[in-house]
Amino acid sequence: AYQHLWEASHVTLEEVLEKEPSLLEPVPSQERQNFQYRLSVHYLYYLGLLRRFDMAYDQMVQPQKRRLLRRLLDGVAGRVLELKDELVRVDMCETHCLDRVLQDLKLTPVRKREAGSFREMSRTEALILVQSTERARQGRLRATFMREIRKEEERDKKIRENGRQKFSQDQGAIIIQKVWKGYLQRKRIEQDRRKEMEFIGMLPSPNQTARLSILARASLGEEHRRIRQVEREEEFQNAIGKTHDALTETEGPDMKEKMKDQIRQWFIECQSVSTAAADPTVYTSSLLAPFALTGRFPDYPDEASGGSYLIFADKTPEQVLLSQSSVNLYSQYIGQVLPAVPSPTLSPASPVSPFPSGTSKDVRLELEMQAQENKKKDQEKNKEKGKKEKKKKNKDEKAKKVSQLPTEGRSVDSLFEELVVVGLIKKNVLVTLSDYIGDCLYLGSTLTMANKMPMPSLFDIRQNMALYGVLRLGSHDIHSMAPHVRSILLVGPSGMGKKMLVHAVCTETGANLFDLSPSNVMGKYPGKNGAQLLVHIVFKVARFCQPSVIWIGNTEKTFYKKIPKEERKMDPKRLKKDLMKATRQLSPGDRVMLIGTTSHPQLAELKGLCRFYERILFIPRPDYASRYVLWKRMIENRGIQLIQSLDISALARVSDGYTPGHILQTIQSVLSERRLLQLSKRPLAASEFVGHLARLDPIYREEEESLKEWYFKTPLGRKNMKFSKDLQEAEEARLAKEKKRRK
C-alpha cells in the first residue's frame, strides 16, 4: 500500500514540477492576485506531497527505499519552506487565507491529510453525502412538526385542568393507559431520533468499542512496522559489514599490491619529470622548474591534503607537484614573494582537471600572475577602506579572543554540565504540536474581499511553528537548503500557549532547551565579561549539541526602552549586544533557533526587537471555531464522553475574550475527582463551567487592540497596512468612476 502511495505521490510531484516554470515568470502588478492564487495552489500541493511522503517514510520497511524516500522528503520539505517564504513576501503577512483555494481544490483543512488527497469525489461518496444532508433536513422538519404537536397538547391539557370534572373508573383507566402509551411512544421516538442522528453523524455513538478496536489495531500495525524497520536496518548494516569484510579478505591483498605499484610509478614519473626539466631555460614558465633545481623526490602528500588519494586521482605528475609547495618554490625562483595558495580540494565525482593538457601549465601560470597583479591593484585602490575594516576586524578578534579564553581547553561535556548546574539548560515539558488545540479561519478570503484584515487563528500559529521551527531543526539537509531563519518572536496575551509552543518544538525535534530569560540569567556569570562568557558558552554548547532552542521569555525586558527602577538590579539588558552578535554568526546548517515570547512588546525598543527577531508571529484571542474545539477536546481529554445535553456551542459563545489557559483552568476546577465519580448520576451541564469562568479576568478588547497596534508598526505589519490601504483607495476610486459614468 505504501509503495503505491509513493508511486502516486511521485506522479503528482512530476505534474507539479511541470507547472513550476510559470511561477518564475515576471508578473505585472495588476495580476498580483492571480499570481498569489497560483502560488497558494502550489503551496498546498507541496504540503500534501510532504504529508504523503512522510506517511510512506514512516511506514516503509526496506532500508534502501527509506534512504531514497528521505532524500525526496527533505527536498519537498525544502520546497515547501521556499514557497512559504515567497507567500510571506507576496501576502506581506505570516498567515495566509487559503480557504478559497481549499474550496476550489475540494479540500478541507480539518482533514487529517489536509492537502494530501487530490482525487475527485466518487459517485458513491457523493450519494452518501446527499443522503446524509437530506436526512438532516427531514429531521429538522420533523422536529418542527413535533414541536407544534406538543404545543397543541399542552394547550389541551391546560383546558382540561381548568375545567375539572369527575371521571368514572373506566374513564380513569382509559386516561392512565393513554398517558402510559404516550410515554412509551415518546421514549421510542427519542431512541429512534438518536439512532438517526448518530447514523447521519450529528451525534457521537455511545458504543465506541468497535471504533476504538479498529484504531487500536491500526496503531498496533504501525508500531509493528516501526519495529520491523529497526530490525531491517540492523540486517542491512550487518550485510554491509560482512560484504566489506569479504572483499577485504578476498580482494584486499591484490588491491594493496596494485596501490603500492601505483605509488612507486608515481614517484618514478615525478622523478622523470624533474630529470627532464634539468635545463631551467627550457622550463622558464613552468612550475616544474623548481623541482629541476632541487633534484629531489616530491613530498608525499600529508593526511590533511588527502594523503594517497591525491596519487590515485586521475591527475598527471605535473598537477600533483603543483598541488604541493610548487608556488612557494617558484616564488623563490623568480625572486617574488607570492602568498601561499591552498591545495585544491578534489571531488570524487569530478577528478579530471578542468584545464586541457599540453600548454595548460603556461595558461595556468599566466592566469595566476594576472590574478596576483589585479589583486595588488585592488588592494592599493581599497587601502583606506581596508584600514577601517582592519580596525573593526581587530576589535571583533579581540572580543572573540576574550570570549574564547575562559573555555579554552575545556570539553563540551564539562560546559554542558556547568549549564545544567546553573539552570541555563532545562528539561522541556513533553508536549507535541498536536496538543496545541485550535481551528483554522474559514472566512479569511471573505474578510479580505470586504477590506477587513483577518487575524491569524490558532491553527495558523501551529502551522507556522511547524514550518519555521520543527522542519528546520528536525533535519540538517532541510536547514541547509531552506531560507535561513535564526529567530522567532511569539507575541500575544498571557495564557495563549506561547511557552507551550517552545516546549512542543523541543519535543518534536529532540532539541536541547536553553533558558536565557532575564529572570533566569539574573546573578549568573557576574563581572565585566560575565555576559560575554555566558553567551559564548551557551552558543558553543548549542552548536555542538544541535538541534538546540534558545528561549528568551519576557524578551521585551532584554530590549527595554527604559528599565523600571525595581528591575535595575536585575540588569535585564546586559545580554543584548552579545546575543545580537552571536545570533548573526549562525549560518545555514547550524540548527540553533532563538525563540522569544512576550505579552508586553510595547515596553521594548521596536527597532532593536525587529532587527533581532526575523519572524514575528502575533497570537490573538481565539475565535469561536477555536474556542469550540478547545472546549470539546479539553473535556474529552479528561476521559469524558460528550452528551447532547452539554451545550458546547453555548460555552464557546460565553467564553469570548478568554484564552486557552482560562478554559483549561476552568475545566480543571469543575472536573475534580469527586465530580467525575458523580457523572453517572448527574451528567455535566454547561452552567457548571460558567461560574468558574466568570471568576477569571478575560483579555479585554483594549489590551488586544494595543497589541494589534504594536504589530502593525513592525516592518511586515507596516507593509501589510500600506498594501491594504492602497487596495481600499483603488476600490474607492473604481466605485467613484463607475458612479460618475452612470451619471
Mean pLDDT, rounded to whole units? 77
Give a count of the beta strands, DSSP E runs of length 2 or more.
Answer: 6
Spatial sequence of strands, sheet with the most strands = 1-3-4-5-2-6
How far apart, in Å, are the first and last alpha carbons? 66 Å
Helix content: 55-70%
Regarding quaternary structure, what we see is single chain
**Spans of at least 5 consecutive residues with low confidence:** 111-119, 277-294, 323-376, 398-405
* The CATH top-level class label of the domain at 423-614: Alpha Beta
Number of helices: 30
Could you name the CATH homologous superfamily of the domain at 423-614? Answer: P-loop containing nucleotide triphosphate hydrolases
* CATH structural architecture of the domain at 423-614: 3-Layer(aba) Sandwich
Alpha-carbon Rg, integer: 36 Å
Class of secondary structure makeup: mainly alpha
Describe the structure using short key phrases:
single chain, mainly alpha, Helicase, Ruva Protein, domain 3, Rossmann fold, 743 residues, 4% strand, 6 strands
